[in-house]
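User: I'm putting together notes for a lab meeting next week and I want to include a structural view of one of the chains we've been expressing. I don't have a solved structure, so I'd like a prediction I can at least talk through. The sequence is below, exactly as it appears in our construct file.
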Amino acid sequence: MEIAGIAFGILLIIFFVIIFKTKKRVKEREIEKKGLDGEYEIQNIIGDDIEGKQYSIHDLLFETANNNTCQIDHIVINENGIWVIETKNYSGMIFGTENQQYWMQVLAYGNEKRQFYNPIKQNQTHIYHLSNYLNVKNIFHNVVVFLPKADISNVNAKEVCLSDQLNNVISQSTPIKLSKRKIKEYYTKLITLQENSDVTLEEHINNIETAQYNIDHNLCPLCGGKLVLRNGHYGQFYGCENYPKCKFTKKL
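Assistant: Thanks for the context. Below is the predicted structure for the 252-residue chain, given as structure tokens.
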């Protein structure tokens, strides 16, 4: 009887573990679907390519130089530079600033709050990997776009806009002036990278979890260097030991 009781207890634990993992996976799929819906909407807003003037790439997933992975929602290339776009299909009120490590989503009239990693910093990582791949700097623009159901009036960051403002953002004149040859060259390189990539979404999700673990343990998610304590204008922070080549930072 005692052995049977132990066996029953083990089976019960296994059952609850399976239920927990199943619920977690269902939730992850719901989040993935919501994200994809937002990306499709932004893709439609960007519209078709204009030969010689503007090209776009969507859902670029590739392996980086340090054997990590990178997924970029949208890239638009035109004479004003390379616009790297991170889409957030969130609802509710969004609170955050450019330099905060984490932002806040507030739902249900303030009764539900969710913290998420600063999407500007997230997109800075994407730009870092693109810069390394294309071997070019200072032609990238960081853009974070929310769908209209989000209230971003409490976000203090120039890189953030709503979806109905996106085309105005990516068409604005900048000091960067790319020739038609350069526009096509960068597009060709990135579309070739996309076509030749064999990275799976599951691998990328696992790498995101690993990157977060590294950040929590003071390892740079970009280059693998140690995050060391530094002094800045606004107090102490953690910075990558490989600065200025790598400019990743983490607040205390």
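A couple of points you could mention at the meeting. The helical segments are 2-46, 119-134, 166-170, 180-196, 201-216. The chain is about 40% helix and 30% strand.

User: Perfect, that's what I needed.
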